[in-house]
Amino acid sequence: MVASYGAKLLLLIALLRCGAKLGADALSMDYYMMSCPFMDQMVRSTVYQALRRDPTLAAALLRLHFHDCFVQGCDASVLIDSTEDNTAEKDSPANLSLRGYEVIDRAKQLIEDQCPGVVSCADIVAMAARDAVFWAGGPFYEIPKGRKDGRRSKIEDTVNLPAPTLNVTVLVKMFGQHGFDAQELVALSGAHTLGAASCASFKNRLSNFDSDNGVDPTLDTDMARTLWRACTAGDGSRVPFDRSSYTFDSGYFNALRRGLGLLSSDQALFADPRTRPVVNAYAMNDAMFFLDFQQAILKMGLLDVKEAGRGEVRRDCRRVN
Ligand code: HEM
């Protein structure tokens, strides 16, 4: 098992080193080599400075990438502001707690000053997520670049984002529509090793809570009390997914094994026989989780990418040109 994972990793690195084009034909590792050679460093240092000020932004940047790619593909449509005649994706209930837009704006501004009109916002979002994972202690993966920015951002398109109350059957189907299998679903859900959720996202789990005795037959007692206390403080009150919510590690999977998953959709991954073996494997083997995560997130970053002709390079990430 270890040898086969080592071999897979070496193959992946070799492919990436020689500028392999992964899936989307026009993308490449060295896409901006001539037109904007220092853009990678500009994104990396912008993310680094942002995380030094506020480590919770690592989670925010990773989630931004996910919510971008699952709706209309990785085209930065999630960054577009609503206008008088259009309610954009970012104003949908599923996206209201997204954060990190200002980090993307800062990186874009730096890059525009050096190489105007060259680097897409979609590439910046993908790179910022990559750097956030790395600075939080996760794997480093190189990504192919050359995505173009979309011109459409509509609230109704966000119905494709998964809700925290979904069971594994629906999650498998939903992720399957984007080309991911059950193992990749679990690997990507491992992103919940970073960050937190608000009471609004997990209060459904407290429906059996007996507030007189502080117990819930369906939940670990301490967990039930923590969630209850958080929700007494209001729907916006936040609880971390695991005990090391600033660090990218396998703590999330260990939490699931102890019944401490925060969202119903998290704990469902351990309850269901199709996904439980993968949760167990990742909990016991960081290296396996890291490798599967980086392969799955690379794949996610290629979802329905727009190449020249179907998109543009936005000058301001919040507005179409
Ligand atoms: C499997 C289906 C998934 C569901 C149902 C789901 C749902 C959620 C919900 C409800 C929240 C909390 C929102 C809030 O209350 O503020 C959240 C947070 C988060 N999600 Fe997911 N998510 C899923 C998959 C993913 C994937 C695939 C990624 C990234 C690759 C991801 C990254 C994150 C991160 C990093 C946070 C924490 C954000 C922060 O602390 O600001 N999620 N997710």
Automatic annotation (TrEMBL):
<dbReference type="GO" id="GO:0020037">
    <property type="term" value="F:heme binding"/>
</dbReference>
<feature type="disulfide bond">
    <location>
        <begin position="69"/>
        <end position="74"/>
    </location>
</feature>
<keyword id="KW-0560">Oxidoreductase</keyword>
<keyword id="KW-0325">Glycoprotein</keyword>
<feature type="binding site">
    <location>
        <position position="89"/>
    </location>
    <ligand>
        <name>Ca(2+) 1</name>
    </ligand>
</feature>
<dbReference type="InterPro" id="IPR019794">
    <property type="entry name" value="Peroxidases_AS"/>
</dbReference>
<protein>
    <recommendedName>
        <fullName>Peroxidase</fullName>
        <ecNumber>1.11.1.7</ecNumber>
    </recommendedName>
</protein>
<dbReference type="GO" id="GO:0006950">
    <property type="term" value="P:response to stress"/>
</dbReference>
<comment type="similarity">
    <text>Belongs to the peroxidase family. Classical plant (class III) peroxidase subfamily.</text>
</comment>
<comment type="similarity">
    <text>Belongs to the peroxidase family. Ascorbate peroxidase subfamily.</text>
</comment>
<feature type="disulfide bond">
    <location>
        <begin position="36"/>
        <end position="115"/>
    </location>
</feature>
<feature type="binding site">
    <location>
        <position position="77"/>
    </location>
    <ligand>
        <name>Ca(2+) 1</name>
    </ligand>
</feature>
<keyword id="KW-0873">Pyrrolidone carboxylic acid</keyword>
<dbReference type="GO" id="GO:0042744">
    <property type="term" value="P:hydrogen peroxide catabolic process"/>
</dbReference>
<feature type="binding site">
    <location>
        <position position="71"/>
    </location>
    <ligand>
        <name>Ca(2+) 1</name>
    </ligand>
</feature>
<feature type="binding site">
    <location>
        <position position="193"/>
    </location>
    <ligand>
        <name>Ca(2+) 2</name>
    </ligand>
</feature>
<keyword id="KW-0964">Secreted</keyword>
<dbReference type="GO" id="GO:0004601">
    <property type="term" value="F:peroxidase activity"/>
</dbReference>
<feature type="disulfide bond">
    <location>
        <begin position="121"/>
        <end position="317"/>
    </location>
</feature>
<keyword id="KW-0732">Signal</keyword>
<feature type="binding site">
    <location>
        <position position="249"/>
    </location>
    <ligand>
        <name>Ca(2+) 2</name>
    </ligand>
</feature>
<keyword id="KW-0106">Calcium</keyword>
<feature type="binding site">
    <location>
        <position position="75"/>
    </location>
    <ligand>
        <name>Ca(2+) 1</name>
    </ligand>
</feature>
<dbReference type="InterPro" id="IPR019793">
    <property type="entry name" value="Peroxidases_heam-ligand_BS"/>
</dbReference>
<comment type="function">
    <text>Removal of H(2)O(2), oxidation of toxic reductants, biosynthesis and degradation of lignin, suberization, auxin catabolism, response to environmental stresses such as wounding, pathogen attack and oxidative stress.</text>
</comment>
<dbReference type="Pfam" id="PF00141">
    <property type="entry name" value="peroxidase"/>
</dbReference>
<dbReference type="InterPro" id="IPR000823">
    <property type="entry name" value="Peroxidase_pln"/>
</dbReference>
<feature type="signal peptide">
    <location>
        <begin position="1"/>
        <end position="26"/>
    </location>
</feature>
<keyword id="KW-0479">Metal-binding</keyword>
<keyword id="KW-0349">Heme</keyword>
<dbReference type="InterPro" id="IPR002016">
    <property type="entry name" value="Haem_peroxidase"/>
</dbReference>
<dbReference type="GO" id="GO:0140825">
    <property type="term" value="F:lactoperoxidase activity"/>
</dbReference>
<feature type="disulfide bond">
    <location>
        <begin position="199"/>
        <end position="231"/>
    </location>
</feature>
<feature type="binding site">
    <location>
        <position position="162"/>
    </location>
    <ligand>
        <name>substrate</name>
    </ligand>
</feature>
<keyword id="KW-0376">Hydrogen peroxide</keyword>
<feature type="site" description="Transition state stabilizer">
    <location>
        <position position="63"/>
    </location>
</feature>
<dbReference type="GO" id="GO:0046872">
    <property type="term" value="F:metal ion binding"/>
</dbReference>
<feature type="binding site" description="axial binding residue">
    <location>
        <position position="192"/>
    </location>
    <ligand>
        <name>heme b</name>
    </ligand>
</feature>
<feature type="binding site">
    <location>
        <position position="242"/>
    </location>
    <ligand>
        <name>Ca(2+) 2</name>
    </ligand>
</feature>
<feature type="domain" description="Plant heme peroxidase family profile">
    <location>
        <begin position="26"/>
        <end position="321"/>
    </location>
</feature>
<feature type="binding site">
    <location>
        <position position="73"/>
    </location>
    <ligand>
        <name>Ca(2+) 1</name>
    </ligand>
</feature>
<dbReference type="InterPro" id="IPR010255">
    <property type="entry name" value="Haem_peroxidase_sf"/>
</dbReference>
